[in-house]
Amino acid sequence: MRVPAHSVCTAIRDDIVSGAHPPGSRLTEELLARRYGVSRVPVREALRTLESEGFVVTRRHAGACVAEPTAREAADLLEMRTLLEPLGAARAAERRSEAHLKVLRGLVRLGQERARRGEAEDLRALGGWFHETLAQASGSPGLVALLTQLRHKTAWMYTVEQPARPADSWAELGAIVDAVARGDADRARALSARHAERAAGFHRLRRPDLPGRRTPPAARVRSSQHGVNTAGVRP
Predict the structure, then answer these.
(1) Radius of gyration of the chain (CA)
(2) What is the C-alpha separation between 27 and 69, in angstroms, rounded?
């Protein structure tokens, strides 16, 4: 079965984010190929991609290893996300389609419903889908790629606490969608900036002992084995 490198890349990235491959651990092609049931060729390509994304580093005499980001790097990434998400919302107000609006409104309704029920795990997934859809609505592939990478890396470096009043958070997202629907880029940007700044305050470093720790911008205001998804892969 010919498994594409991007599927292997996704599987390895997911395991890095989940902690199955801890920071500093070696990533040998042979062991990874055996773990994910693929040949070494897509593993090699996947490691190159993950190195370009900052998840993997190549060390002399050790080869590919999981990167060990500092707390300062983690804080910088979170700050970049709080700056880029408002840009995405503004672009979405100018370029969104009716299909994007339909999905965004549906996610807000589901989020508000789950918030009333206190279903935290569902809220995390819905929040991720919301921000992914909003980024897609920006019509900017480059921005989508950056935001996607930032979401992966912040999920790797931080845990996210649920706000005391999650319904308020979803009301903020609903207001962003209203601004996007009206084509009001300035209001969409402002509302998204306020929401992103507030959301950053719920991020906690997974490793609080990391060197270079500094206060994140907002505070100034399953170790499981993932298989490669081979659905649709042609033998």
Answers:
(1) 19
(2) 16
